[in-house]
Design brief:
Elements lengths: L1 E9 L3 H19 L2 E6 L4 H7 L5 H9 L2 E6 L18 H11 L4 E7 L12 H4 L4 E7 L9 E6 L2 E6 L5 H16 L4 E6 L5 H14 L6 E6 H10 L6 E4 L1 H13 L8 E5 L5 E5 L16 H13 L4 H16 L2 E2 L9 E2 L2 H10 L2
Parallel strand pairs: 1-2, 1-3, 3-12, 5-10, 8-9, 8-10, 13-14
Antiparallel strand pairs: 4-5, 4-11, 6-7, 11-12
Helix pairs in contact: 1-10, 1-12, 6-7, 8-9, 10-11, 11-12
The protein binds nicotinamide-adenine-dinucleotide.
Length: 360
Amino acid sequence: MNCKIALISGDGIGPEIVREAKKVLDAAAKKYGHTITYTDVLMGGASIDVHGIPLTDSAISDCQAADAVLMGSIGGNTSTSPWYQLPADRRPEAGLLKLRKSLRLFANLRPASLYQELKAACPLRNEIIGDGFDLMIMRELTGGLYFGERKTVEENGILKAYDTLTYDENEIRRIAKKGFEIAQKRRKKVTSVDKANVSDSSRLWRKVVEEVAKDYPDVLLEHMLVDNCAMQLVKDPGQFDVILTENMFGDILSDEASMITGSIGMLPSASLNDTKFGLYEPSGGSAPDIAGQNIANPIATILSAAMMLRFSFDLDQEADAVEQAVQKVLTEGYRTGDIMSEGCTKVSTSEMGDLIAERI
Ligand code: NAD
């Protein structure tokens, strides 16, 4: 297979962690007989330094011409970096929002799984963790409360603010389909999370999800209210496979889920549109405090590359190989500083990349 990947190294630790993900992708391509073509794309602070803006039209075209985008992270120290003296629409993050919009990325995927080797970093008690957990939060990214009409008005001398939460059935249908498709590649269970006891948008959400479920008879569907889901995530995370939910609920639940895994440096993510195209990036930021020191954990970016192989290229075997190589390196006791514990061997960013690539 010939895979065209747009590479956005970005800022801070971005170039260091993307370099290692590329190393691992190349090792997988070599082993399984694929060709990967990379196009380097500037975004964020790196683009501001060269072009004065965080994302150029030609950078967008380069991403659109690729099959998928692999990104490090963008942004700098928000207190000291000159990028944050610029107007809001010219700061690094504006580039990412514009790119997501241009690529019509409406589905955000954030897995949260526990490696037995990193159990000590999990804030949950052993009896709750049990055999561990491996769940995926699928969050709608372009609708709902964050994109609805909002206003602050003054009525009879009293300030009043409102935000509107709107979804139409097509927006719900397309994310629900993605949710069921992803579940088919996993343990075939979807927990659709809403607030159907209160809101109309949630009642529509539930109705459309039930309709879509009929096309996926091999996937088990359950509904859960969002307040209960927030509790269940810390009470019994092992019960979940795919959690399908709207924008704001997903925003909150995905951060809760990431906390119970213990380390930000281990968490990949993907944002997909209605084709196979996706943008893959670690959940963490550009970590300016440790940039340029070769100590960042590249595993979240490497696991993001594995998600790319699975979801954009349907290369499940290759994705498994990358994930198993990560598992092997952890079992052998290698750790970057952020996940270091007694008795383990501390390695640098590039050494971690080498170790994983060698085990593909
Ligand atoms: P951050 O995630 O960059 O850092 C938080 C802490 O986690 C820091 O101590 C950092 O050293 C550590 N950390 C993060 N990733 C790590 C890794 N791979 N290995 C080891 N340690 C890691 O969050 P922040 O400090 O709030 O933000 C820094 C910059 O990143 C800001 O400009 C912010 O806007 C940007 N940001 C970008 C994205 C993105 O590109 N999608 C996401 C979040 C934040």
